[in-house]
């Protein structure tokens, strides 16, 4: 590790926190309908759709509206991917996707996962990328933020039924938050070298073709919306997708900016900024600790390669780009997995065992550090409720959060949401570890092979999308099971969370008393961190010991596979 | 049912039209007008021929050229994705290090994209003697050219020091 490496990391994280303050305030204004520079377009959407943006929805209606949009989005995207061969904007004349791959990819983009069992430049027409994948990047991100706002309103008000209007939230977040940011970031990326053209590619002297396309706009929203799906197969490691130190920093910022900003939106909307800062603090603690571990492991390098003659000062450069270096590759791995983004600027499969353990563990902790846009906030709320419940048990008082009593119904629903992901990840991984149809997909032998399986199902159920990419994902078995894991990981959390929101909204908000447990100071930050680590992480320890930890000791002993 | 389906279909259709066609097509037009070079892949044109891109490594065969980093895949355009305990990876690293000591790590490993346009200054320096002797030039002259093509960190701490192989080879010219 070097001082310059840490200076880069500190600079980026400071930038994220500094911009989170104004962004958080702005998102609250958008959520409350106080931003309206595209009012005619906005009301046009409402009028055509026949919705009244002022009409509040109860939690069931809110969930149904969200599911209706997502289901329609899945069907349209599936059809588009299957039919791309016959549609315009397909200059490379690519065929339609297989049913398995189209199923997997459509789920992947509707659930904000962006798991990619294909390579963009060889599989997707420009129309599929632009009007299919990128549109879902916007809508799945707006969906996540809308759900987080609904839960926030439930906590902010007392004795109400309505959580807001899903359609109004969707339209406002898309038009006033995601679209302007994507346009701005996209144009900065073009200026730095990310292509934006409708041509299929450039033919070089000698006949070689460099694939090109409308990449910059899609890369911008893939980062801002914590989607992560690359325009090109190797994602933000591709020099066209992430060409310079500036694009690397801009994209890292875009991965983390909105998830952190939303915690401050939360604080503002519940009328106590300290509550938002406490959540930010927990998230930042994990990001810094994870970065320190991953950076240390990658900077130390691979002992076998060093013994083969590599300069020990250079660290592990396999799968990394020279322009990004070790420090920002490690930070990116942490940001992209902590934030449920899933884009990569280096290949996680080639990280050292402990360097690769960190991103995998961050996904398994529930994608709440800071988590995806919106999904991170409503995800960490589940842990918050469990934290105040545990604190309540310790002192023998009814647990409260923001003056609302947390009772059996909320705790049961929270536990349901917490248990879905481990069940899904460990269940599917266990089956895959013995099933020949799944084992055929594994590239590496030894413990690393298990890590590839475990990472894949963690990534799918966590709606992350990054991979230990040596795994062959485009098989009927993998496409189907990973698709199911993505569905469960998204909706089996959203529905309980919205049910919690419905039940909390109806409760009165009692003022603080001398006996209230403060949910802002360092004590609560420590408690919440512990709950996330224990409830979110403990189930995965045995599997992690069989995968990355076993591989670490094998590497120390000089064993290869 | 209809009061649920109608908004879902209208929102999906409307946003597909807006965010999937109108905005990106308009964005493409503006990008093409403002930044035609980068929007089209930062292509390098020499005497009317497209010889490469500033951003993509292109291997030039022969001792007289600086070589970019190894590509992980056989096709030459991807990462290896091999794990840290992979025997195949160790074998490849050993072959590239060729029994020497303190080899720059980027000289013996494959990049993440397989297209990494850069090498580290140490990796470039390691190739100077070979390139100079193949061209019958004094090594100091080649090293000076490498130094001129070494990009520094932005503001002294952002990014990594690096040498663009494509640009360096073009500056060297045909042997």
From TrEMBL, chain A:
Pfam families in the cross-refs: KdpA
Annotated organism of origin: Roseococcus suduntuyensis
Any GO MF annotation of the entry: potassium ion binding
Transmembrane spans: 62-81, 138-163, 175-194, 250-270, 277-297, 376-395, 416-439, 482-502, 523-546
GO cellular component: plasma membrane
Main location: membrane
InterPro entries assigned: KdpA
Keyword Ion transport (UniProt): yes
Gene name tied to this protein: kdpA
Reported function: Part of the high-affinity ATP-driven potassium transport (or Kdp) system, which catalyzes the hydrolysis of ATP coupled with the electrogenic transport of potassium into the cytoplasm. This subunit binds the extracellular potassium ions and delivers the ions to the membrane domain of KdpB through an intramembrane tunnel.
Subunit structure: The system is composed of three essential subunits: KdpA, KdpB and KdpC.
Protein's recorded name: Potassium-transporting ATPase potassium-binding subunit
Membrane topology: Multi-pass membrane protein
Coiled coil: none
Family assignment from sequence similarity: Belongs to the KdpA family.
PANTHER family, per the entry: POTASSIUM-TRANSPORTING ATPASE A CHAIN, POTASSIUM-TRANSPORTING ATPASE POTASSIUM-BINDING SUBUNIT
Upper taxonomic lineage: Bacteria, Pseudomonadati, Pseudomonadota, Alphaproteobacteria, Acetobacterales
Keywords noted in UniProt: Cell membrane, Ion transport, Membrane, Potassium, Potassium transport, Transmembrane, Transmembrane helix, Transport
Cellular compartments annotated: Cell membrane
TrEMBL record, chain B:
Membrane disposition: Single-pass membrane protein
Pfam families: KdpC
Subcellular localization, as worded in the UniProt entry: Cell membrane
Domain of life where this protein originates: Bacteria
Entry keywords, A to Z: ATP-binding, Cell membrane, Ion transport, Membrane, Nucleotide-binding, Potassium, Potassium transport, Transmembrane, Transmembrane helix, Transport
Any one Gene Ontology molecular-function term assigned to this protein's record: ATP binding
Any one Gene Ontology cellular component term annotated for this protein: plasma membrane
UniProt main location, coarse: membrane
HAMAP family: KdpC
Family annotation (PANTHER family): POTASSIUM-TRANSPORTING ATPASE C CHAIN, POTASSIUM-TRANSPORTING ATPASE KDPC SUBUNIT
Annotated family: Belongs to the KdpC family.
Record's subunit section: The system is composed of three essential subunits: KdpA, KdpB and KdpC.
Function: Part of the high-affinity ATP-driven potassium transport (or Kdp) system, which catalyzes the hydrolysis of ATP coupled with the electrogenic transport of potassium into the cytoplasm. This subunit acts as a catalytic chaperone that increases the ATP-binding affinity of the ATP-hydrolyzing subunit KdpB by the formation of a transient KdpB/KdpC/ATP ternary complex.
Listed name of the protein: Potassium-transporting ATPase KdpC subunit
Organism encoding this protein: Roseococcus suduntuyensis
Lineage, broadest ranks: Bacteria, Pseudomonadati, Pseudomonadota, Alphaproteobacteria, Acetobacterales
Gene giving rise to this polypeptide: kdpC
């Amino acid at each position: 590790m070097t001082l310059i490496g840490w200076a880069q990391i500190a600079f980026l994280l400071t930038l994220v926190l500094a911009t989170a303050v104004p962004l958080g305030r702005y998102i609250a204004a958008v959520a409350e309908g106080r931003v309206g520079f595209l009012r005619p377009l906005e009301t046009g959407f409402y009028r055509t759709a026949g919705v009244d943006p002022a009409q509040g929805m109860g939690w069931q209606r809110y969930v149904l509206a969200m599911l209706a949009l997502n289901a329609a989005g899945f069907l349209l995207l599936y059809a588009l991917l299957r039919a791309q061969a016959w549609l315009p904007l397909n200059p490379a004349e690519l065929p339609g996707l297989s049913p398995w791959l189209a199923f997997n990819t459509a789920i992947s983009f509707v659930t904000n996962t962006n798991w990619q069992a294909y390579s963009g430049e060889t599989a997707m027409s420009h129309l599929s990328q632009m009007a299919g994948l990128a549109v879902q990047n916007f809508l799945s991100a707006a969906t996540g933020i809308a759900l987080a706002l609904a839960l926030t309103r439930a906590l902010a008000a007392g004795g109400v039924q309505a959580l807001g209007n899903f359609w109004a939230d969707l339209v406002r977040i898309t038009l006033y938050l995601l679209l302007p940011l994507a346009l701005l970031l996209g144009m900065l990326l073009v200026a730095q070298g990310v292509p934006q053209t409708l041509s299929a590619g450039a033919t070089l002297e000698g006949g070689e073709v460099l694939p090109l396309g409308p990449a910059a706009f899609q890369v911008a929203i893939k980062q801002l919306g914590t989607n992560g799906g690359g325009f090109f197969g190797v994602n933000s490691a591709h020099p066209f997708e992430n060409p310079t130190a500036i694009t690397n920093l801009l994209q890292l910022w875009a991965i983390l900016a909105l998830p952190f900003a939303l915690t401050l939106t939360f604080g503002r909307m519940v009328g106590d900024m300290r509550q938002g800062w406490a959540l930010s603090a927990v998230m930042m603690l994990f990001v810094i600790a994870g970065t320190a571990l991953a950076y240390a492991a990658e900077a130390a390098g691979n002992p076998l390669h060093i013994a083969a003659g590599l300069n020990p000062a250079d660290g592990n450069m396999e799968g990394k780009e020279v322009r990004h270096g070790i420090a920002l590759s490690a930070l990116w791995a942490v940001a992209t997995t902590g934030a449920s983004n899933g884009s990569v600027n280096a290949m996680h499969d080639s990280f050292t065992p402990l360097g690769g353990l960190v991103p995998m563990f961050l996904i398994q902790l529930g994608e709440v550090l800071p988590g995806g846009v919106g999904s991170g906030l409503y995800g960490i709320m589940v842990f918050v409720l469990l934290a105040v419940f545990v604190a309540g048990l310790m002192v023998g008082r009814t647990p409260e959060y923001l003056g609302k009593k947390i009772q059996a119904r909320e705790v049961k629903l929270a536990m349901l949401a917490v248990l879905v992901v481990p069940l899904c990840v460990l269940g599917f991984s266990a089956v895959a570890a013995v099933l020949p149809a799944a084992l055929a997909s594994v590239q590496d032998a030894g413990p690393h092979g298990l890590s590839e399986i475990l990472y894949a199902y963690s990534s799918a159920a966590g709606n992350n999308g990054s991979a230990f990419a040596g795994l062959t994902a485009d098989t009927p078995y993998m496409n189907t099971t990973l698709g199911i894991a993505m569905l469960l990981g998204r909706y089996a959390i959203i529905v309980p969370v919205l049910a919690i929101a419905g039940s909390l909204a109806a409760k009165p908000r009692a003022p603080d008393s001398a006996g209230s447990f403060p949910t802002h100071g360092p004590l609560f930050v420590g408690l919440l961190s512990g709950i996330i680590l224990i409830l979110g992480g403990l189930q995965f320890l045995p599997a992690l010991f069989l995968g990355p930890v076993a591989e670490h000791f094998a590497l120390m002993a000089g064993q290869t596979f | 049912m209809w009061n649920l389906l109608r908004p879902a279909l209208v929102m999906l259709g409307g946003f597909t039209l807006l965010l999937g066609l109108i905005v990106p097509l308009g964005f493409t037009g503006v990008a093409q007008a403002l930044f035609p070079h980068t929007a089209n892949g930062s292509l390098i044109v020499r005497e009317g021929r497209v010889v490469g891109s500033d951003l993509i490594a292109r291997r030039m065969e022969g001792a007289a050229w600086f070589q970019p980093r190894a590509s992980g895949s056989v096709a030459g355009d991807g990462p290896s994705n091999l794990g840290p305990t992979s025997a195949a990876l160790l074998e490849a690293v050993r072959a590239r290090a060729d029994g020497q000591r303190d080899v720059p790590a980027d000289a013996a490993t494959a990049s993440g994209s397989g297209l990494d346009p850069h090498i580290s200054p140490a990796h470039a320096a390691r190739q100077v003697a070979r390139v100079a002797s193949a061209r019958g030039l004094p090594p100091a002259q080649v090293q000076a050219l490498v130094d001129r093509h070494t990009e520094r960190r932005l503001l002294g701490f952002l990014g990594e020091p690096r040498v663009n192989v494509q640009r360096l080879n073009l500056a060297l010219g045909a042997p």
